[in-house]
Amino acid sequence: MPPHRRIDADGHPTLAELEESIRTDDLWSTRLLAVERKAVRDVIGYCGLVDGRGSAGEPELAFELLRRVWGQGYATEAASAVLDWARSSGYERLWATVWDWNTASRRVLAKVGFTETERKVVDPVHGTTLFTTRRL
Ligand SMILES: CC(C)(COP(=O)(O)OP(=O)(O)OC[C@H]1O[C@@H](n2cnc3c(N)ncnc32)[C@H](O)[C@@H]1OP(=O)(O)O)[C@@H](O)C(=O)NCCC(=O)NCCS
């Protein structure tokens, strides 16, 4: 995780602060879903759609899983399910933005059919954001 996404030296964001942001923040409360394993019935992260920077009316796919479950195909499975959901909801195209250094996320996006476009945003501190897209 880049430094701005980590829990800081004073312990923020706390669990209570995260709970509050999930309840009140539009970004979280719109179309992000909890990812739950059917067999274990534990919540391991989120996957869904957010209004992003792609194009108007074409949301972004977003996902994040707990580190302890990485590398077992869960992000790919969850992303595929969200693509089906987006298609049946009438969307014709989705976007996904990803840091150029985020190999795991870029691999997940490639596996579910996203392709990179010419669009990118270069941030000298955090890296380059790549814009990828997928027709449904
Ligand atoms: C990105 C993330 C959701 C992937 O979750 P996951 O369940 O491990 O993903 P999957 O198992 O479905 O697929 C991961 C793929 O990346 C590959 N991969 C992972 N780390 C890699 C690395 N360092 N180098 C090369 N490939 C890597 C895996 O081998 C796998 O590909 P494969 O199936 O061809 O072998 C998870 O790492 C995460 O939560 N990261 C932090 C949040 C984040 O970056 N979110 C996305 C923001 S755009």
From TrEMBL:
GO MF term (any one): acyltransferase activity, transferring groups other than amino-acyl groups
UniProt domain N-acetyltransferase: residue ranges: 1-136
PANTHER family tied to this protein: GNAT FAMILY, PUTATIVE (AFU_ORTHOLOGUE AFUA_3G00765)-RELATED-RELATED, N-ACETYLTRANSFERASE DOMAIN-CONTAINING PROTEIN
UniProt organism field: Catellatospora coxensis
SUPFAM superfamilies: Acyl-CoA N-acyltransferases (Nat) (SSF55729)
Protein name as it appears in the record: N-acetyltransferase domain-containing protein
InterPro entries listed in its UniProt record: Acyl_CoA_acyltransferase, GNAT_dom, N-acetyltransferase
Organism superkingdom: Bacteria
Any Pfam family hit: Acetyltransf_3
